[in-house]
Amino acid sequence: MTVQTSPLVTPALQHEIEQFLYAEAALLDERRFDAWLALFTPDVDYRVPAARELDAPDDPQAPRLMHFEDDLTGLRLRVGRLASKAAWTEQPPPMTRRAVTNVRVTPGDDGELEVRSYFLLYHVRRAPAVDLLAGTRRDTLRRAGAGLQIRRRIVWLDQGTIVINPLSVLF
Fold first, then answer.
1. Most buried residue, 3, 50, 84, 140, by most Cβ within 10 Å?
2. Whole-structure pTM value
3. 122-166 tens-digit pLDDT
4. CB–CB of 124/130 below 8 Å?
């Protein structure tokens, strides 16, 4: 089997996108939520569907249940709650580690980049209870000056049942 890659995705572009995703993961693990929010475009579409449908079309109008379905305002509200003392699920703040791997890049429309990646999220608030979440992310990245921003993120969790209760992590 031959794996097809786009000639428009240079090793330098692949490296840039991987470094962007690694830096984003570090911001979340370090709880630097304001810096994380700055990585999103003003018109961001951030969704975590409740059902695993990796081969389903990415039609935003398609009806499906969501764990999260946020725009930038919704993400700001979610982050504000996570950073406040009112979020009992964040007291004490959990320790997280995110691993991002299998990054695949495809040039998209209007100069955007379609990026698929796998993630593994380690989450512990009170030992010995440890939560692991794994899944696939589909991102649409857009150039913003010399850097990149996330225009759209869809997170497909591998688990059919989410064991973190309540689900308060960001992907």
1. 140
2. 0.88
3. 988 777 778 889 999 999 999 998 899 999 999 999 887 777 756
4. yes
Query: Nearest 5°: CA angle at 159, between 106 and 56?
Result: 45
Q: What is the DSSP string of 12-62?
A: HHHHHHHHHHHHHHHHHHTT-HHHHHTTEEEEEEEEEESS--TTS---TTS
What total number of domains does the chain contain? Answer: 1
Given this model, what pLDDT does residue 149 score?
98
Residue 135 in domain:
yes
| Contact by Cβ (8 Å): 132, 122 | yes
The Cα 151–Cα 142 span in angstroms is 6
Q: Is residue 36 part of a domain?
A: yes
Residue 13 confidence (pLDDT): 96
CA angle 44, 87, 133 (to 5 degrees): 60
CATH number at residue 74: 3.10.450.50
